[in-house]
Automatic annotation (TrEMBL):
The lineage of its organism: Bacteria, Bacillati, Actinomycetota, Actinomycetes, Streptosporangiales. This is BTAD domain-containing putative transcriptional regulator. Keywords: DNA-binding. The keyword Nucleus does not apply. CDD domains: BTAD. It comes from the Bacteria. Belongs to the AfsR/DnrI/RedD regulatory family. Coiled coil: none annotated. Residues 263-285 are annotated as: Disordered.
Amino acid sequence: MRMRCGILGAVTIWDERGDAISVGGPRVRALLALLALNADKAVPVEALIDGLYGDEPPAGAGNALQSQVSRLRRALKGLAEVEASGAGYRLAVDPQAVDAHRFLRLVAEAAGRDAAAKARLLDEALGLWRGRALADAPELRGHALRFEEARITAVEDRAAARLELGGHRDLVSPLRELVEAHPLRERPRALLMRALYGSGRQSEALELYERTRRMLADELGTDPSADLAEVHLAILRGEPEPVAGPMATDDPRASLGAVPGPETAIGTGTAPGTGTAAGPGAAEASGRARVPAQFTSFVGRDDDLARIAVLLGEGRLVTLTGPGGTGKTRLAIEAGGRAGATFVDFAAVSAGEGETVLARAVMGALGLREAGVLPSGERLGPAALLETALGDRPVLLIFDNCEHVIGAAATLARRLLGACPGLRVLATSREALGITGETIWPVRQLPVPSVRATLAEAVSAPAVRLFIDRGSAANPAFAVTAANLEDVVRICEALDGQPLAIELAAARLRALSVTEIADRLDDRFRLLSRGDRTQNPRHQTLRAVVEWSWDLLGPDEQRLARRLSVFTGEFTAVSAREVCGGDEDLLLDLADRSLLQRTPSGRYRMLQTIYAYCAEQLAATGEERELRRAHAAYFLEFAREADGHLRGAEQLTWLERLDTDQENLHAALRWALDTDVPLALRLIGVLSAYWWLRGIRSEGSEAGLRLLEALGDAPPPEFDEEYVVAVALVALGNQEVPELPSLVERSERLLDGIRRPLRQPFLLAMWALTAGPPGGAEEVDRLMERRGHQFVGHPWNQALVEMGAAYLHLFEGRPELTEPHMDRALATFRSLGERWGTTQALDALASVAHETGDPARALDLLEEALVLVRELRSASDTAEILYRRGDILTVLDRRDEARASYLASADEARRAGLQNTFAAAQCGLGDAARLEGDAAAAAAHYERALADCPPRWYTAELRARARLGLALLARDRGDRTAALAHATAAAEAARAYRMDHSRTAEITALLSSLEAPPVDARPE
């Protein structure tokens, strides 16, 4: 076999000798993985683009894919072909050359074999795993989860086979570990019970069952599976060989770990003994069901039920409020049914009806009728009859759906509560009744799991539990697995955890797959248009739910609601007034009616479904463009104000404010990029410092690239500075832009032409990294003469000049001249309370301390810097300081701490997409492995660093470091030719980056020793 490919671990390829070869950067590895998953089959171009770039592919995605294919072909070095066809691309290898395919074949072969053969085949299959599947390809998380699920099942199957072979004692410890790793999977628990029992530990097996039973009941509201109960019963009977049932992997309980089972609806029964009131005109009662019986399980509201029980014990009127579809009615039925309530549904009452009509509805629910007249001949009205009938009896009434008759409902509730001291009322409404003494309980959406949640965590989240429950009813074959988990979470998140919307979506599983439902949620009102036809019409479709609330609004409220859809995420009363013209009273009205939600900070937000409906209404009015422009203009001014505070003591406060409105800022930028280039230029300029400080530079890089494409070769004269900002953002991003050198050259000329203080001083720091250091002291003087006027004004600018001068001295190998400049810069930054500049100065002084032989001081400086970058929450700076800290810890021979620091840096860099910092961390890990004598691991880290290192001048340091490491490894194994080649490449890279003088000296010494003839070859 010429080549083998591995994805059951990090993505790896091995040549015919079994040597691992470098694949390339993250995109190339992801591409290889996608092709390997479909080995010897053509994968459509669209599927590859989706797999590599997700929902937001870059402009020219097809060209980008071709570029990645070319890199992959070079990496494969002829070991295998990547063939193009009309259908896409094909990796021309035998599928059995890919460990994942071989794993699946071995697992399939094991099925149906005897226990010994099964154990042997599964041993071989599981031996192919080297770590987490696709560990370094986060884009393919869905595929990875599918293989992880298959691996766990194979581990379970192997344990079952070994139990059949009598290996009970040996399996107790590994099965305990499996149970701890996957606490919600029942099959490992059944296997562990068998292993304990077979080892003579019957009491422990029974105790495990009891713990499992309690855990399932407390956490999931379900009972142990029939298979687990069968093992339990066999142990109780003392059967010689208790055998677990098949627990087939296509059983939803097995594939999910543990799916919450149906919970019994509680609260049906007969009406309380209201009896017949004495005297003429009294009401007569007949027995009625207290609350409607429910046909589905009740999921995810245990905390609400407990709290409502407390509130009803403390007060006499509790109102459940929330938007349509949040499950207020069902929650009231569950809570009230447990307390013996009588259910009164006002949904059928016409809007605007008065107290009398509502009182008759209450009488009907209680089974009361008007039975006579008073002696005077006067007939009592329904409300008065209720007062007489209820008297002081302890009664709980549920007033459901009060919003369209809110005034009459409030009047009736106040009258009855005042006349009947034993009465309590539990109401549901999209707004409060507004009565003195009313307790309001907002019914929130069901919690949705994080996209990073494990399978077990996700299926225990209430929103997902509801989707599973209703989806299984619609399609009995449906189960949540690792393969479809991401789509299920996406559906629940897009629907804001709204129970009715989730139920409507789950019902579509009769005809659509989970992925198809998730992909169609952009048109959610059309998708979720088929509900229970026996329900009230306003609960049959998602549109009807929202329209019911919309129709209850007045014209001014409707106008403001649709205009508010220009906001993305949260917004304030001030921004709503400035952009949409709405006063705060109207906002409060919309919040009271559950069209808006108020956050704990006093801001407002719309649920996504309400947002989608309001956006439709706005588009229909023709005023959307005007509102979008007002929105973008408002947030431009906000960003300008914030930018003025980012270089001083208020830095963290204003960064937090920008974070809070990040979604609105980026929405404004996206709109401007599509419709108003000058506005987009202004936004990119004022947001650049925020992106830089927070370490979210990819946002600016992508926006900058789009802007440069729109501008072409002619930047507007009045936006010279903003144009240079855009170029710097692109240059410092991860995109490969062929025309970047010409863009940088043009920007240099533009910068030279600016004869005023810069509007965006952070540009100077960004440009220093983009353009690289000038060549020598004379060029520095000329540079300062051309651009010195750009630095005047704010003390921060002067500190930046000092820092720039310090770095130039450091770059030229003059640490003794570096420190005075950097000390002055540090003092100024500290006096301003500015953390980013302080961090950079501390980092540079740490480099000086390192160069001058004082690693302990260097570590102290970096520890202080690490505290500051974590306060800034800058992923890029945190990752950088962590790997530098690892270098110092290595010098101090604190290797375990150094390795931990490198790993933390790599993790931070990977999550933030920081290629150069990730490569730096790999270099550090390579050094750590080499010092520990693990040559193979060290070489893999160095190769990974070279593959991930973007082609920038400042990454020459990393290339030099990785090549030096490879040279040392080659020298130590006696490969003089390879060592010389790597050392020569290291020297070339070191010349491009002159700041790391100690490493340059090490490279020079190594080259000298390698170029000298061997001792036994020298003439006597």
